[in-house]
Amino acid sequence: MVAGARVEGAMLTRHITTIRHVSGRFRVSQETHRVRVYPRGTIAAALRRSGFRVVIRRSIGAVPLIRGDAVVAARQPG
Known about the structure:
The protein has one helix spanning 40-49, and strands at 2-8, 11-22, 25-36, 53-57, 59-60, 63-64, 71-75. By secondary structure, the protein is mostly beta strands. Strand 5 (59-60) and strand 6 (63-64) form a beta hairpin. The longest helix has 10 residues, at 40-49.
């Protein structure tokens, strides 16, 4: 797998090429993912306005996330 990323303003574009060996042949697939990036505070504020309790973390358990990523856990009280 080969991956590259480019950030333009609030948009993150990832280009991914995957090469697999299937039934004696190589298969190549390409994907492009476009993701709008929001500040953590903006996401947390929107969820709280909607009645959620919000926790933002930089790891999943003991596993740290890559730079710039975060986990948002939100649950409705009750």
